[in-house]
Amino acid sequence: MAKQHQHVGSSLDDLLQDTGELAEVNTVAIKRVIAWEIAQKMEAEDISKTKMAKIMDTSRSALDRLLDPENTSVTLHTLDNAARAVGKTLRIELS
Fold first, then answer.
1. Separation between Cα atoms, residue 36 and residue 78, nearest integer Å
2. pTM of the model
3. pLDDT digit string (tens) for 28-63?
4. What's the CATH number where 54 sits?
5. Which residues contact 53 (CB under 8 A, 6 or more apart)?
6. Domain limits at 66?
7. pLDDT (tens digit, 9 = 90+) per residue, 74-85?
8. Is residue 58 part of a domain?
9. 3-34: buried (b, 16+ CB within 10 Å) or exposed (e) per residue?
10. Into how many domains does the chain fold?
11. Contact in structure between 90 and 79 (CB atoms under 8 Å)
12. Sign of CA dihedral 22, 26, 59, 47
């Protein structure tokens, strides 16, 4: 009889948890959504990076880091300003 794979029937979250990658994958996914929403807001309202940085009360380089979907090094302050810039509220929850 063939040996069954240990992850057959489990969820992707289970696999990522077992390999120690779940937190990193979740962080990148959240960051991609935030970057996409900011970019959509900028495109819809024809807002330049310089103007968006001013709206967010941050630097242009901080906005560039925010718009980079792979860069997860953004501050809570920048995330809060980004949320407000797109008419949303930043909520952080530990569960």
1. 15
2. 0.70
3. 888 898 899 889 989 999 999 999 999 988 899 999
4. 1.10.260.40
5. 59, 60, 62, 63
6. 14-85
7. 888 888 988 888
8. yes
9. eeeeeeeeeeeeeeeeeeeeeeeeeeeebeeb
10. 1
11. yes
12. positive
Cα dihedral 54, 33, 62, 20 in deg (nearest 10): 160
How far the first Cα of the chain sits from its last, in Å, is: 42
**Tokens 């968006």, residue?**
52
54 in a domain, yes or no? yes
Report whether 50 contacts 40 (CB < 8 A): no
Provide the residue type at 41 as one letter: K
64 located within any domain: yes
The CA distances from residue 93 to 30, 65, 90, in Å, are 13, 23, 10
Task: Answer whether residue 94 is part of any domain.
Answer: no
Locus of tokens 């063939």: 2
